[in-house]
Amino acid sequence: MSERVIGRIRRVNGPVIEVKGVTDAMMLELVYVGEARLVGEVIKLDGNRAVVQVYEDTTGITPNENVFGSGSPLSVELGPGLIGTIYDGIQRPLERLYDMSGSFIERGVRTPGLDRSRTWRFEPQATVGTEVSGGEVLGVVRESEQVVHRVLVPPEVAGKLAAVADTGEYRVDETIATVRADTGERDLRMMQEWPIRKPRPAAERNALSAPLVTGQRVIDTLFPLAKGGTVAIPGGFGTGKTMTQHAIAKWCDADIIVYIGCGERGNEMTSVLTEFPDLVDPRTGLSLMERTILIANTSNMPVSAREASIYTGVTMAEYYRDQGYDVAVMADSTSRWAEALRELSGRMEEMPAEEGFPAYLPTRVAEFYERAGSMRTLSGDSGSVSIIGAVSPPGGDFSEPVTQHTKRFVRCFWALDRQLANARHYPAISWLDSYSEYLDDISPWWESETGAGWSTSRAEILDLLQREVRLQQVVKLVGPDALPDSQRFVIEVCTLFKNAFLQQNAFDEVDRYTTAAKQRAMLEVILAYWRRGSAAIRKGVTLIKLRRMKALQDIVRMKTRIANEDTRSIERISARLERSIGQLESIYV
Ligand SMILES: Nc1ncnc2c1ncn2[C@@H]1O[C@H](COP(=O)(O)OP(=O)(O)OP(=O)(O)O)[C@@H](O)[C@H]1O
Ligand SMILES: [Mg+2]
Asked: In testing the pocket of ligand 1, which one of 243, 339, 510 has its CB within 8 Å of the most ligand atoms?
């Protein structure tokens, strides 16, 4: 269907526009509003009236101007060229917009999501004459140094492959294959389009089995996320949501990162833009921008585009999942997205539910997180989308609707704690309020990658942290001297664990990222101190003597001084610790 007039503007209310005289508009159809042709989407149809949500500033738009329908839903373009690009919430490439209209983006500027002037070297892999169906690989393109882009048959296409292009340079909109079916012939290009609000199909959901290793110790060791899993990071103002998201975007072991800056300050996105190209992926030695797509919809950009941005992002993520990749989506912050929903709902005069949010907030939150998962793709490969959403509850109060609804739909929760942040204990992820429901899924991975006993060790340290809370209450009442050494030692070990393990400095070259193997070694040496130390105390060794051991200094410093590859050095600390405790004990036998 081509562009046609679907009605005329009746009323303008910020980004919400009422259209009259509507004849053949479709729900969720992409429309162009007024002579300025602002991009919008039909969000309500009622007789000959429609409500359109406009993704650009509507200043100057007047009643009676025409509204044009595009005939298709709001979609994104998927194909080579996404990686390394910065988009706004409706997939307009910001750099090209900037070239076209300067730093204040003009309204109605249209430029496709994928560059039509650029060519890519396509290498065919499919054989002419074979039957193909959705998801099958037609050929490959090296999209960036890190990413081999698999050009797929779009999900809805099936038939006999009648032609496929030879190896060569092609633009994304050139035909590279033809599929013949009973219904006719269809030319396929390297790019395809997909409506952002509709999940891309997969063959089936896989059970989750591998962790998304983030290099952040409190996360990986205590509250791990699975590849294909969902997590919320709630935290009050300035508690470290963005820093945590950035750290994961930089160091996690996903193949592709989609980072959605949603309604946050512009300077936070700038830091991603300036830092990422210079940072190197520890696994491949290549620039981190080589695997990243950025979607920037900062607080000064139109509110409805913010509403769309998370769908734009997750659709791109699903597209790379369909190619067999593990993708991590970061959304900072889903609260700003929910606020956009609230504003739009208010303008449509819908009946508000809790705190003014629309009654469909929980459904929308659930729909977003349901797009995560580890999937068997249509071609039988497997890929995953993990979703990491920041939540910014006003006043840091986790009982507000967005945090509460999010908590219902995610299976992992990294609660940021104001007191920890104030004490500059970073990442300020609370070990008492956070949880992960992925342990059963991913424990076997840890046991086979880092050695048996991981689950037991993890449980042991968490148990100590919980015992410490109770002991600290006693200390508050009667002072530390009232406790026997065996109990004071619990507090001692927990303090060591917090300093030497949980605290992690994002600005330190070594500390900012810790491999699974080093995390395990660090955990074990601290537990060795606990196990051997408790035995020594039972034999009569005093806490003061234990505390003076030089090996403890080495334990505190191992996070910054010992390189990831050098787990042998941690084993040496362990041996030294064992010798020192042995010497202390020998006095008592
Ligand atoms: N892992 C870390 N290592 C070192 N410093 C950190 C770490 N995490 C947070 N910080 C410190 O906390 C400050 C605030 O963090 P951040 O901007 O991530 O908070 P936020 O929760 O996103 O805040 P806002 O609510 O304003 O978006 C950072 O500028 C940094 O100084
Ligand atoms: Mg932030």
From this structure: 243
